[in-house]
Specification:
single chain; alpha/beta; 10% strand; elongated
Length: 123
């Protein structure tokens, strides 16, 4: 098991360096301060925080909180993130289709395909 730490977007350079050194596996960088959900917005440009973490020797940095659309994934990668986490959007889709498993699986499959396409990676 590898410890991972959450990096808030408004952390000081010193705190980000501590997070970078203590993390293994990946760093979960919050796209914005606050609670999780599907709303977008960042406290300061993610690129600055990502560069600070990388310069401090962080493992891969994944951007999360508010990642609900393919353009959010593209923006995360363009800012230098190694990936994106999309938890609340997945939970929302599951909640919307609790009574219809086939519809739930179709909606989740469509969501994953759209998000993956934004990474520019192929099968």
């Amino acid at each position: 098991m590898q410890p991972l730490f959450i990096a808030p977007p408004d952390a000081s350079q010193e705190r980000l360096a501590e997070i970078a050194q203590a993390s293994q596996g990946y760093v979960y960088l919050l796209a914005r301060a606050g609670v999780t959900g599907t709303e977008g917005g960042t406290a300061r440009p993610a690129g600055h925080v990502i560069r600070t973490l990388k310069e401090a020797g962080a493992p891969p940095t994944l951007l999360g909180f508010g990642i609900a659309e393919p353009e959010h994934v593209r923006a995360a990668l363009d800012a230098g993130a190694d990936g994106a986490i999309s938890g609340s959007a997945v939970v929302r889709l599951i909640e919307e289709h609790l009574e219809d498993e086939a519809a739930m699986l179709a909606a989740l499959g469509n969501f994953v395909r759209r998000m993956k396409a934004a990474t520019r990676l192929t099968d």
